[in-house]
Amino acid sequence: MITRTTQRRSILIALSLTLLIAITLSLAIGSRVIPFADVIAALTNPRDGDNAHLVVLTQRLPRTIIAVVAGAALAIAGTLMQGLTRNPLADPGLLGLNAGASLAVLLSIVVLGWSNPAIYVWAAVLGAILAAAIVYGIAARGGGGANPITLALTGAALTAGLTSVSMFIVTTNQQALNNYRFWSVGSLTGRGIDTITAVLPLALAGALLAVIASTRLNALALGDDIAQGLGHNLTTSRLIIMSATVLLSASATALAGPLVFIGLVIPHILRGVAHGDYRWLIALAAPAGAILLLIADTIGRVIAQPSEVEAGFVVAFLGAPVMMWIIQSKKAVAV
Questions:
Q1: How far apart are CA 176 and CA 174, in angstroms?
Q2: How confident is the model at residue 291 (pLDDT cuts 50, 70, 90)?
Q3: CA distance 311 to 302
Q4: Of 85, 72, 66, 84, whose CA–CA distance to 27 is shortest?
């Protein structure tokens, strides 16, 4: 008889192998297909002046790493957010993170005159962190403290307010529109290894906090009273979970823009496999999120040659029908 643990391990191994395949395809496929042997040679023994090696190392390797980091971070962040708010339809944007990052990027363009997408990362990180701090601060002042309901309502209200300000800036400033629209659609290009190394520590710190938060999420899922009875401080637990979500979402948004559906769909697909155990759900969500974004980016390179379709569009195209299928399936089960 196959145990749940054996099943989970098998799926984790399968996801890890699929991730390796997706990474290989991402490095090999584009407007020009590069043989796998040349990809391996470029990574292990690059030759000066070899165009194939140059493409792999300077173009495809950075965007592949960005897809892995951003996809994994968003999937974990979505898992944390759904556990924190006890809302199966929650995603990192619920705390106003995407709206805060977007407004910060726009202000950096208009006020500071920044025009390089690689520099937007710092504005996006700061904006996401400030938005989350405002949401938590306002929610914590309520009579019931920063509970799932107040966090969700405060995040929705802040998102609406920040989005309206962003739309005002975009519609009244042509320069802001021209620069912002490239970043906002979810692009993995225009960033180098230096950008990745700058943001990677934030993502790793968020992942470490997510691992710490996993047992607390398991306790919170049983209810506040039971969690307290098990010795967990509700305020500390929620602060750890929020901090992990903010770091993961901020780093992913800074690298790839405000991508949608990854943090929403991935936890839904894997929840039945994890059987409510957030330790396993987080472990499975990381490679699954990376795979989804890698596949979306690879598809976007080839479906409209010689142009490219940004990864954000492809993710939305793939994620929307999956999400509708999940909703219909749950309705069918409920009936």
A1: 5
A2: very high
A3: 12
A4: 66
